[in-house]
Write a structure and sequence with these properties.
The chain is an all-alpha fold. The protein contains four helices and two strands.
């Protein structure tokens, strides 16, 4: 070694270890915080959708028959939205339970508690207070009256066309 040269001695191992532990713990905490913020945002935000249509659908006997056909046969709305008696063969709809909604059984393996809403025309408990545009948006886009998404088990993507 010549005069005027500076020598750098390496840090002891325990100091290097402490520095790396601090760096890794800080990065881990930062990752957890960012992930929590992203998940919170995704959970709390409402979907970006257009407002419901401002339409009034004329009620005619033909449209009522078509709606009954769609509800009972083609779309099978009553399969989820009606109270059924599965102690009997075929699980017939219980008297007075058509369209009243129900909590879907946990043995279906769904995440959490899923409720098929009351879709009767009752203004207090059903969708009777909804506008026709809000009903159309729920059926076609999967967005309820308050702007929340419906559970994707509701096949709203099939009705967009």
């Amino acid at each position: 070694m010549q005069a005027g040269e500076l020598t750098i001695s390496p840090l002891p191992y325990y100091l290097v270890s402490l520095v790396w532990k601090k760096i890794l713990s800080t990065l881990t905490a930062l990752f957890v915080i960012v992930a929590g913020l992203v998940l919170g945002f995704l959970y709390l935000r409402k979907p970006a959708t257009a407002p419901p249509l401002d339409v009034k659908v004329e009620v005619t006997p033909e449209r009522l028959d078509r709606g009954r056909f769609l509800f009972e046969r083609l779309a099978d709305c009553g399969g989820c939205h009606s109270e059924r008696d599965f102690s009997r063969f075929g699980g017939p709809v219980m008297p007075g339970g058509r369209g009243k909604g129900k909590v879907l059984p946990p043995d279906l393996g769904l995440p959490g508690v899923i409720v098929a809403s009351n879709i009767t025309p009752d203004r207090e408990t059903g969708i009777g207070a909804w506008t026709d545009g809000e009903k159309i948006r729920a059926i076609r886009e999967g967005i309820d009256r308050e702007g929340r998404t419906l559970f994707p088990m509701m096949p709203y993507t099939n009705y967009r066309g």
